[in-house]
Design goal:
mainly alpha; 2 strands; 7 helices; transcription regulation; 2 domains; elongated; two-stranded antiparallel ribbon; Rna Polymerase Sigma Factor, Chain: A; Arc Repressor Mutant, subunit A
Length: 170
């Protein structure tokens, strides 16, 4: 296969590689980078491609291996070696360990805010929270489904206002 034919085949196959790249990376920019890396590697290694074999499978393999290599490189970059006598390997990523106190305070505030709701709003809201469907709530409470949706909406709105202190917290 000539360089021109190979280049044309690569260009034709690149459209089918895009969804796979997006599936691997889950990010459009990273998928575009992976696509570019794959095409560059394929072109630089075109002499390793055997004419008459499946080009698409070859490109998918290059893409998968490139993704794995990049992922492993990223993980290694976040790992450092402790040079003390223990010689532990420690991941120093963005992981954060919390003691749970913040979550306990938040949960108390949420439960308090729910307890303050009028029963008219609290009952359908809690039923929906527990997994009941709108029509099941309407049947149990003997009210129209539109009323159920409205009351749940109002309950959420009240809770959102009541708990706005947590709006930008993670």
């Amino acid at each position: 296969m000539t360089t021109l034919e190979f280049s044309y085949s690569l260009h034709k196959m690149s459209k089918s590689l895009k969804p796979f790249a997006l599936k691997l990376t889950r990010d459009m920019d990273d998928a575009n980078d992976l696509m570019q890396d794959t095409i560059v590697k394929a072109f630089t290694n075109k002499d390793k491609f055997t004419d008459g074999t499946n080009l698409k499978a070859w490109l998918y393999t290059i893409m998968k291996n490139t993704f794995i290599t990049n992922y492993q490189r990223m993980i290694r970059r976040g790992t450092f070696v402790d040079t003390t006598d223990n010689l532990h390997y420690i991941n120093s990523g963005d992981s954060l360990i919390e003691n749970g106190a913040y979550g306990d305070f938040a949960m108390e505030d949420i439960q308090s805010a729910i307890a303050k709701l009028d029963d008219v709003y609290k009952t359908p809201f809690m039923m929906h929270f527990r997994g009941f469907k709108y029509h099941e709530i309407a049947d149990k409470l003997c009210i129209p489904i539109g009323t159920v949706k409205n009351r749940i909406h109002i309950a959420r709105k009240i809770l959102k206002e009541e708990l706005n202190v947590y709006k930008n917290k993670n």
